[in-house]
Design brief:
Length: 236
Amino acid sequence: MLDLNGITKTFGGIHAVEDVTMSVASGEVRGLIGPNGAGKTTLVNLISGLLAHSAGNLSLDGEPLDRLRAHQRAALGVARTFQNLRVFPSLSVAQNIDVARYSGRGSAMVDAAIAEFGLSDKLNQSAGSLAYGQLRRLEIVRALALNPRVLMLDEPAAGMNEQETDALGRSLSWVRSHSDCAILVIDHDLKFIMSLCDRITVLNMGTVIAEGAPKDITKNQEVIDAYLGEADERAA
């Protein structure tokens, strides 16, 4: 569904992302992990069109995306959330969702998603009045309103407690069972990532150092040295 071939992004002389080649299949949930500064968010910005890549090419279901701007990619079904929340606080929850609903390909599942993510009784409230966890869920529902072919979630569980994270995982499993979109998830919560994802890609210093099933990633010594050991220390 989503194909990246040699994607590179340089800022001056710094390679933020270097020669990343990756394919994410329809219906697959792919984790994207790595230490801070590894290039994860930059890669999502490149896929969504928020940034232009310096080299390489990317396509969605065989259709080149390289020359398309962010709103054109969104209209084709490239949807995302942000590490730092980007809702319209003065608009209602329903209006936030409608921004995407009328900009994308139209989604038959959005009303069910509103209920699944616990927003049915919040539709007439201003987004700015929601609790933090509800704002995270609103961003995901808004992305789903685009009827995405690829859904990219940048740290969706950030700031959530264990119960909220577990509920989010169940809701994302619901999305998977009701849609064939590819899902790409960045998060530092390894329990959340390992339980949710089919495969995991690991970035370090802008390059892919490993890719595979969660059980294989946890045994990869290069990944342990670059990231998992550091994550274990944070958890402790």
